[in-house]
Specification:
The chain is globular. It is built from nine helices and seven strands; from the N terminus they run E-H-E-H-E-H-E-H-E-H-E-H-H-H-E-H. The model has no long low-confidence stretch (mean pLDDT 92). The protein starts with 8 loop residues before the first strand and ends with a helix. Helix 1 packs parallel to helix 2. The chain has a seven-stranded parallel sheet, sandwiched between helices. It is α/β, with parallel strands linked by helices. Residues 8-186 form the Ketoreductase domain.
Length: 251
């Protein structure tokens, strides 16, 4: 039986499409009111409208996750519309792959700003706009934080930081009634991922995965929803690998 998330108010960054979009739709289908946060107005509005058309509660929020003021304003708008926040999913990311010698300052700055600083701002905004109930953070990690993978130095730096931050914040915020966990998806051919990974790359990822297939957006969304829900009430500091076993096989 799917968990009931009725009464939850959850901000999802990067929710216009891909894993973030699938997560926003799933959370809403289980009763949560969702802030559909994305830098692309058309994508944010499309996902929010789809949720509302299905009978769910959603607020489209167009903003940049690297902008602290914008993230706080997004949380304030969501709280004003549906009530105090009970959770955040830090999904927004900017990705570029390439050899370490080719990494440029502007790309690295942007990746760190969205992927690391954005997670900080999301947690701060949740704390600023929570009520008196326990709340939950779910960050998006990656198997690259555990494995050496060629041409992913900047992305690995971001996700390694997210894994460390997840565990640190679980200790710091646990006494305040905040659970902090992460989901590490395996290879999932989202629209954003397909822009930087070709078919040969996905064939390699499929061969490296013990289950012998790629993941689906909805499968990752279900892992995120579990960590936000009541069945995970005693879980914190965990990095849940929804990766088809790629981490186990590669190690």
């Amino acid at each position: 039986m799917s968990e009931n998330l009725s009464g939850q108010v959850i901000l999802v960054t990067g929710a216009g499409r891909g894993i973030g979009g699938a997560t926003a739709r799933l959370l809403a289908s289980r009763g949560a009111a969702v802030g559909v946060f994305d830098i692309a107005a058309d994508l944010a509005n499309e996902t929010a409208e789809a949720i509302k058309a299905a009978g769910g509660k959603a607020l489209a929020i167009v903003a940049d996750a690297s902008d602290r003021k914008a993230v706080f304003e997004a949380a304030a708008s969501l709280a004003a519309t549906f009530g105090p926040l009970t959770g955040i999913v830090n999904d927004a990311i900017f990705i570029r792959y390439g050899p370490v010698e080719d990494v440029t300052e502007d790309v690295l700055d942007r990746m760190f700003a969205v992927g690391i600083k954005g997670a900080f701002w999301g947690v701060q905004a949740l704390l600023a706009h929570r009520g008196d109930k326990p709340v939950s953070v779910v960050n998006l990690a990656s198997p690259v934080a555990d494995l050496g993978t060629a041409n992913t130095s900047s992305y690995t730096s971001v996700k390694g930081a997210i894994v460390a931050l997840t565990r640190q914040l679980a200790v710091e915020l646990g006494p305040k009634g905040v659970r902090v966990n992460a989901v590490a998806p395996g290879a999932v051919p989202t629209p954003g991922a397909r822009a930087i990974v070709d078919e040969a790359g996905y064939a390699k990822r499929r061969a490296q995965t013990p289950l012998g297939r790629l993941g689906e957006e909805d499968e990752i969304a279900k892992a995120i929803a579990f960590l936000l829900g009541p069945d995970a009430s005693f879980i914190t500091g965990e990095v849940l690998h929804a990766d088809g076993g790629i981490t186990v096989k590669s190690m």
